[in-house]
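Input/output pair, single chain:
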Amino acid sequence: MGLKIWSPRSHASRGRIGFDFAEITKTTPEKSLTVPLKKKSARNNHGQITIRHQGGAHKRRYRLVDFKRTKLEVPAVVAAIEYDPNRTCRIALIHYKDGEKAYILAPIGLNVGDSVVSSNQADIKPGNCLALSAMPVGTIIHNVEMRPGKGGQICRGAGASATLAGKGDVYCQVRLPSGELKQILSTCKASIGQVGNTDNENIKLSKAGASRWRGIRPSVRGMHMNPVDHPLGGGEGVGKGHHPVTPWGKPCKGFKTRHNKRTNSSIIKRRK
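Output:
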């Protein structure tokens, strides 16, 4: 795993920093573990845009990653480390002892030939999956469940990890990357280790087309729009003194918008 710096032989390559893909051992996905991915450009069933600045992107297939790790007590061997265009981290192709195949998130330290298992009696090593109650305090974890059996929902991106800060009879305390301390049921599962591809934050695309390949469309600042399109639009010259808002007038960029009373009781310490 490392970075590649391009020589400035053209405008497109000047300043470009990308991956060297040294950790990739298999270039084509497992066909039985992929499904077609239809382009929707962030539109719902009525054709309305629900998320702005999305659309286009290169044609790709979705890799079926096993976030639940429900195949218990069956050891598996890592057959390959693959690139996944649908996420920032790498994925590992594992072969179970009974012949079944699956994809899991590839943490740091997981290599081809390593053995992984989903069991409460498993060793504390990267790739294994255990319940929070079966881990020692201080364990670095990823792919953390919020509800038992629902599958991992927290810490799934490149370089993400959480820490098991405390244990109780019913709940465990988990410190999230944001600094928030949250209590989660002890029966929820998590995988050991930190998600790999930590250099993802250091890449530089160097041209607009690279963003379009990834499905990211241009974003226009509100102050350059007309008054009919944005609250900050219009006027002569450059306007100052307005807090950033969305096109619908809702404050953003630092304004707290969390209103989820249902899960407030699970937060022990707020994020910084």
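The longest helix spans residues 208-213. Helices lie at 208-213.
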